[in-house]
Amino acid sequence: MIVEDDPFIAMDLEDIFLSSGYDVMGPFADVDSGLKSLGQSLPDVAMLDYNLGRETSIPLARRLHEKNVPFIFLSGQVEQVVIGHDRPKRPVIAKPFNPQRLLNVVGELVHAS
User: With the CA atoms of 65, 38, 107 and 52 taken in that order, what torsion angle do they form, in degrees rounded to the nearest 10?
Assistant: First the structure.
Protein backbone atom coordinates (compact mmCIF):
# COMPACT_ATOMS: atom_id res chain seq x y z
CA MET A 1 0.00 0.00 0.00
CA ILE A 2 1.34 3.41 -0.97
CA VAL A 3 0.02 6.58 0.67
CA GLU A 4 1.75 9.63 -0.82
CA ASP A 5 0.32 13.03 -1.73
CA ASP A 6 3.08 14.01 -4.17
CA PRO A 7 2.08 12.41 -7.49
CA PHE A 8 5.66 12.16 -8.76
CA ILE A 9 6.92 10.40 -5.64
CA ALA A 10 3.83 8.16 -5.67
CA MET A 11 4.56 7.15 -9.28
CA ASP A 12 8.22 6.49 -8.41
CA LEU A 13 7.23 4.30 -5.48
CA GLU A 14 4.72 2.43 -7.60
CA ASP A 15 7.33 1.83 -10.32
CA ILE A 16 9.91 0.66 -7.77
CA PHE A 17 7.57 -1.92 -6.28
CA LEU A 18 5.97 -3.10 -9.51
CA SER A 19 9.39 -3.61 -11.13
CA SER A 20 10.44 -5.62 -8.06
CA GLY A 21 7.48 -7.99 -8.39
CA TYR A 22 5.17 -6.52 -5.76
CA ASP A 23 1.46 -5.86 -6.24
CA VAL A 24 0.54 -2.29 -5.33
CA MET A 25 -2.52 -0.92 -3.55
CA GLY A 26 -2.94 2.73 -4.43
CA PRO A 27 -1.29 5.08 -4.47
CA PHE A 28 -3.61 7.03 -2.20
CA ALA A 29 -3.15 10.76 -1.66
CA ASP A 30 -5.13 11.22 1.56
CA VAL A 31 -6.26 9.50 4.74
CA ASP A 32 -9.90 9.03 3.66
CA SER A 33 -9.10 7.13 0.48
CA GLY A 34 -6.54 5.00 2.33
CA LEU A 35 -9.02 4.14 5.09
CA LYS A 36 -11.69 3.22 2.53
CA SER A 37 -9.24 0.88 0.84
CA LEU A 38 -8.38 -0.77 4.16
CA GLY A 39 -12.09 -1.44 4.61
CA GLN A 40 -11.97 -3.61 1.48
CA SER A 41 -8.65 -5.42 1.83
CA LEU A 42 -5.44 -5.35 3.84
CA PRO A 43 -1.97 -4.99 2.35
CA ASP A 44 1.05 -7.06 3.37
CA VAL A 45 2.93 -3.83 4.11
CA ALA A 46 2.32 -0.09 3.71
CA MET A 47 4.44 2.98 2.95
CA LEU A 48 2.98 6.09 4.54
CA ASP A 49 4.06 9.61 3.74
CA TYR A 50 3.81 11.26 7.13
CA ASN A 51 2.72 14.70 5.92
CA LEU A 52 -0.22 14.57 3.52
CA GLY A 53 -0.75 18.28 2.97
CA ARG A 54 -3.20 19.47 5.61
CA GLU A 55 -3.22 16.17 7.48
CA THR A 56 -0.86 13.47 8.66
CA SER A 57 -1.06 9.74 8.02
CA ILE A 58 -1.37 8.98 11.76
CA PRO A 59 -5.02 7.77 11.45
CA LEU A 60 -3.88 5.26 8.81
CA ALA A 61 -0.93 4.23 10.95
CA ARG A 62 -3.23 3.55 13.88
CA ARG A 63 -5.62 1.49 11.73
CA LEU A 64 -2.74 -0.52 10.24
CA HIS A 65 -1.36 -1.07 13.74
CA GLU A 66 -4.78 -2.32 14.95
CA LYS A 67 -4.88 -4.76 12.02
CA ASN A 68 -1.26 -5.91 12.61
CA VAL A 69 -0.14 -4.70 9.19
CA PRO A 70 3.53 -3.62 9.11
CA PHE A 71 4.26 -0.17 7.72
CA ILE A 72 6.98 2.39 7.13
CA PHE A 73 6.82 6.15 7.42
CA LEU A 74 8.43 8.04 4.53
CA SER A 75 9.08 11.69 5.24
CA GLY A 76 11.06 14.73 4.29
CA GLN A 77 10.42 15.92 7.86
CA VAL A 78 11.88 13.05 9.86
CA GLU A 79 12.16 15.05 13.08
CA GLN A 80 8.40 15.66 13.09
CA VAL A 81 7.74 11.95 12.72
CA VAL A 82 10.26 10.88 15.33
CA ILE A 83 9.51 13.57 17.91
CA GLY A 84 5.94 14.58 17.17
CA HIS A 85 2.61 12.92 17.78
CA ASP A 86 1.64 9.82 19.62
CA ARG A 87 2.10 7.25 16.89
CA PRO A 88 2.81 3.56 16.58
CA LYS A 89 6.59 3.08 16.47
CA ARG A 90 7.67 1.96 13.02
CA PRO A 91 10.66 2.45 10.72
CA VAL A 92 11.09 5.97 9.36
CA ILE A 93 12.88 6.49 6.04
CA ALA A 94 13.93 10.00 5.06
CA LYS A 95 13.13 11.51 1.69
CA PRO A 96 14.85 11.51 -0.65
CA PHE A 97 15.14 7.77 -0.11
CA ASN A 98 17.40 5.09 -1.50
CA PRO A 99 15.15 2.69 -3.46
CA GLN A 100 17.23 -0.38 -2.57
CA ARG A 101 17.15 0.47 1.15
CA LEU A 102 13.38 0.88 0.96
CA LEU A 103 13.01 -2.47 -0.81
CA ASN A 104 15.24 -4.12 1.80
CA VAL A 105 13.16 -2.77 4.70
CA VAL A 106 9.91 -3.77 2.98
CA GLY A 107 11.28 -7.26 2.30
CA GLU A 108 12.21 -7.64 5.96
CA LEU A 109 8.75 -6.54 7.07
CA VAL A 110 6.97 -8.84 4.62
CA HIS A 111 9.03 -11.85 5.66
CA ALA A 112 8.68 -11.07 9.38
CA SER A 113 4.88 -10.95 9.27
Answer: -80
The secondary structure element, H or E, covering residue 41 is: none
Which run of H or of E encompasses 52? strand 51-52
Greater confidence, 62 or 112?
62
pLDDT (0 to 100) of residue 54: 92
Q: How confident is the model at residue 77 (pLDDT cuts 50, 70, 90)?
A: confident
**Total tally of structural domains belonging to the chain:** 1
Reported as half-sphere exposure (CB side, CA atoms, 13 A), residue 99 has a value of 12
Residue numbers of the domain that contains 70: 2-112
Strand 2-3 vs strand 55-56: parallel, antiparallel, or unpaired?
unpaired
